[in-house]
Amino acid sequence: MQSESVSDVFRVLDLTGVLGNALLGGVIARRERLDPIGFATLAVLSGLGGGIIRDVLLQHGPPVALTDHAYLLTALFGAAVTFLLRVRGRAWDRLWPVVDAVALGCWATAGAQKTLEAGLGWLPALLLGTVTAVGGGAVRDLVLRRVPGILGGNTLYATAALVGAGALVWLSETGHPTAGSVVGLLSGAGLCLAARWRGWILPSADAWSPALVVRRHPHLRSRGGRRRRSGHPPKPAPDA
Length: 240
Description:
Number of helices: 10
Strand content: under 5%
Order of helices and strands: HHHHHHHHHH
Helix content: over 70%
Radius of gyration: 23 Å
Number of domains: 1
């Protein structure tokens, strides 16, 4: 009974995430000045893409987005809302990050849990949990011929999904799948929101290059300059 109630709660959260990301897809479609088909396409990709990719890779029956009509109807509803109304303003700016973070945590844990139930190990569960959370947005960006936002330059997103999926896998392996679902949701969503608030991003490939370090810390350059101007050669290293 308790597992069924938890499952119902997660379905509500799942559909809430579908709606939120479908609205985001519609907002981007309006920004790109697309027609109604474009609105529907971006809404479906944003809201359902990650789950469809996961279910196709698992090969355990049709994707849930095709067997449960509520998912597709929710995504199309989001497209219709953004086509008819301009979804923007302070209320949207405050609500959207919370809905997005909750959806990310929910999708990451649901994807990891479904992978474990299919008989696969912890590593595929981490992979497909992350894909479930970020796959739709990545596909949407590729359709728009943009570099997917999860690949760098933005606050932690895929990393938050990985943390949420990891919490679910760890607690499930220790015999606490229900607690894992809750902890995974909270940890993934919490890290996503904290990263937005604090501006946390992963370092780029050149973040630790000597030139960039010196540019960020000019006192290192001044020390080196004084040493060179002093005219004293460096002391020879002692013999081993």
